[in-house]
Design brief:
binds zinc ion, 19 strands, alpha/beta
């Protein structure tokens, strides 16, 4: 007869130590969840579970990673460390070795193992569900467990995703990649997985389709939060600890008439220094740009001699709508980014403004609502909420969204 080996006391991953989960843990990354989405929804009375946590849980405001984009932050949350360690600093970057602009969603760019994979290797049952398939390979890197996306839930196999026929498990049709239902599928899958598979640790990551369109308090945003609240309540009722955070916030990037405030930075730099003298890279760029036109509040710029970073930086810093321009080393120190994947300059625009490359490279025809986006320091603050109280929290600590597992495993009662 096999005697189950006792659970390890804890494990150390990327230099941080975590206690072993004592009950099922569900960490939820709500894409684009500006804290005010929850405040407004709670005020409507339609999110009773979240409202109840005020008295029995923990609510912190945490800082995400800048650039406040999806992939750098999801990877920070599951590795517990910033991009300077795990390497993923955007959706997209200029690969100097390859001499090409490439997507950064291949696990070959990941420089640190995930806590999820380490927990699974140490014997935990781990499940990951993400809305968009672009994150699946990164989140599931070397993970011996379940990992699939809503987007491709009809294609899961036990060999690749740790589960056959995820659609049958969830009992919902595969949603459109541009829909609130894509995120609902993630939550529904989480509940079914907790019921059927009882994972020790689950990571659920949604998409910000709704948040790109609807400001906090708008009907669609409150509907989203109410939907989410129902599923979180079920996870709680099934005995899981629920920790909720976000990859980044979200803000209107428009003037008072709702027209986008865009700095077409490549056009400006070409005019100032000549075509080809600089290269503006927007790490928000990805295959799904309909809802934001590839416009966000963060850019990185490569300069070619005789243009210097100081010349270009001074020119950019003088533009209205720019919050900060930093040379590479300073930017990487401040924002904890990998120097070899960042340009000579890092440019962050202010809350109401986004940065583009050239006007003709941005198709805004798909925008059916005033532009809302993220990427900057202005979208750095996110909620960090837990469904159980904390024994004690260190006073004065700067919490990060990538402390979600630390909070859950090391600090909750
Ligand atoms: Zn996101």
């Amino acid at each position: 007869m096999n005697t189950p080996s006792p659970a390890p006391a804890g494990l150390t991953v990327n230099g941080r130590t975590y206690a072993w989960p004592r009950r099922p843990l569900v960490v939820v990354c709500v894409d684009g969840c500006e804290p005010d989405y929850l405040t407004q929804a709670i005020a409507t009375g339609r999110t009773p579970f979240l409202a109840s946590l005020r008295d029995r849980g923990v609510c912190l405001t945490a800082d995400s990673v800048v650039p406040s984009f999806t992939n750098p932050n999801n990877l920070s949350i599951v590795t517990g460390v910033p991009p300077s360690v795990h390497g993923i600093c955007g959706n997209y970057f200029w690969d100097r070795d390859a001499g090409a602009e490439v997507m950064m969603n291949d696990p070959k760019y990941l420089r640190a193992g995930t806590l999820l994979a380490a927990l699974a290797d140490a014997g935990a049952k781990v499940a990951v569900v993400t809305a968009k398939d672009k994150l699946r390979a990164l989140l599931g890197h070397r993970l011996n467990g379940i990992c699939f996306s809503s987007e491709r839930a009809d294609q899961t196999t036990r060999a690749t995703h740790g589960i056959d026929d995820a659609v049958a498990l969830v009992g919902l049709p595969v949603p459109s990649v541009y829909s609130a239902a894509l995120s609902e599928f993630v939550f529904a899958a989480g509940v079914k997985l907790l019921e059927r598979e009882r994972p020790d640790v689950m990571y659920l990551s949604t998409t910000d389709y709704v948040q790109h369109k609807a400001a906090p308090g708008i009907a669609a945003a409150n509907d989203f939060c109410a939907m989410m609240d129902g599923y979180l309540a079920r996870l709680d009722a099934l005995g899981a600890t629920v920790v909720l955070t976000a990859d980044h916030g979200m803000n209107a990037k428009t003037d008072a008439f709702g027209r986008p405030n865009v700095i077409y930075l490549q056009d400006i730099l070409d005019h100032a220094f000549g075509a080809g003298a600089t290269r503006v890279i927007l790490p928000i760029t990805d295959p799904y740009v309909v809802h934001h036109g590839a416009l966000g509040s963060f850019a990185t710029v490569y300069v070619t001699p005789p243009v210097t970073a100081a010349d270009a930086g001074a020119r950019i810093a003088a533009l209205p709508g720019i919050e900060v321009v930093l040379p590479r080393a300073e930017a990487c120190a401040r924002f904890e980014l990998p120097e070899d994947r960042v340009g000579d300059l890092v440019v962050v625009s202010e809350r109401l403004t986004v940065v583009g490359t050239s006007r003709e490279r941005h198709d805004l025809s798909g925008l059916d609502a005033p532009l809302r986006s993220h990427g900057g320091i202005s979208e750095q603050q996110v909620p960090l909420i837990a469904s159980r109280p904390a024994a004690s929290l260190p006073p004065g600590r700067r919490w990060r969204n990538f402390d979600a597992f630390d909070l859950a495993l090391n600090h909750l009662a």
